[in-house]
Design a protein that fits this description.
The protein is α/β, with parallel strands linked by helices. It is built from 10 helices and 9 strands. Strand 1 (about 1-5), helix 1 and strand 2 form a beta-alpha-beta unit. The termini are far apart.
């Protein structure tokens, strides 16, 4: 995969070469290429933006600057051109997986009042944000996208299951994690994690992930119940039932329990 980043601050992206996901560029042959807008300014001062029509604060990146910068890049297919703006929908796990299949991702980073809308419509494939936070520019969202996508490139993570078990990959938020010491500040590690029963550990982690998702992201939990729950085995459906019905939290799955759809109509 090749990442091309268009920005006023190419030095931001040296951070993408660090850590585990930086292995994509250091060792695995993926490309990370930064390009300043300044050479495409079309003037001796390197000014790439101008005041907005109609007045108001801030500056807007001129459309011909982006056009010329994009024309200077080698083109690989399939390719996506991404612009970051707080007015766009947030980047999602599904979009990260989609972008990980591309041969080239071009990241358009702007500042101040962003990009001329004509350039957005003519040159950009998709726009993303990092939610409702307004940042000074698109560089930090671009770094987040690079990191998220690189985790899904083969060989980047030492254990491929790490990405598959992350939050959102299963449709749920991740479960809590614990390490040594077993007791810290009078707080013990949950006993089930110390018992050596792998199936009990799996179900505990699944239930904790479900409970966390229901509490923190009810929108994800509703979608999980609708789209993923019916395909789960009955022990997994039972822990979902426990999450929805806390009074059953410490109860084992009843004998003969027929699964979530029946259970929804008929109390166990």
């Amino acid at each position: 995969m090749r990442f091309d980043i268009l920005t006023l601050f190419p030095e931001y992206f040296e951070a993408a070469r660090l850590g585990i996901t930086g292995r994509a560029f250091r060792e695995l042959g993926h490309g990370l290429h930064t390009h300043s807008y300044r050479p495409f300014a079309g003037n001796t001062f390197g000014h790439v933006d101008d005041a907005p029509f109609g007045g108001g604060p801030g500056m807007v990146l001129r459309p011909e600057v982006l056009q010329t910068a994009l024309d200077s890049l080698p083109r690989l297919e399939p390719r996506r051109v991404i612009h970051f703006t707080p007015a766009a929908p947030p980047l999602t796990h599904a979009k990260v997986l989609e972008l990980a299949t591309q041969a080239q991702v071009v990241l358009v980073c702007t500042r101040y009042e962003g990009l001329d809308q004509r350039a957005v419509e003519a040159l950009v494939d998709e726009e993303f944000s990092l939610g409702e936070a307004v940042l000074s520019g698109g560089e930090l969202p671009a770094l987040c996208l690079i990191d998220a996508v690189c985790r899904w490139l083969p060989g980047v993570l030492g254990n491929a299951e790490s990405a598959e078990q992350d939050s959102f990959a299963t449709g749920l938020l991740d479960h809590p994690h614990y390490t040594r010491p077993e007791i810290w500040a009078d707080r013990p590690v949950p006993e089930v994690l110390r018992g050596g029963n792998h199936e009990a550990v799996r179900l505990w982690r699944l239930r904790e992930a479900m409970a966390r998702t229901r509490r923190l992201r009810p929108d994800l939990w509703t979608r999980f119940l609708q789209e993923r729950l019916p395909a789960l085995p009955r022990p997994d459906q039972w822990v979902a039932w426990q999450v929805e019905h806390p009074e059953t939290w410490d109860q084992p799955k009843p004998k003969g329990w027929k699964g979530w759809p029946t259970a929804h109509r008929e109390q166990p």
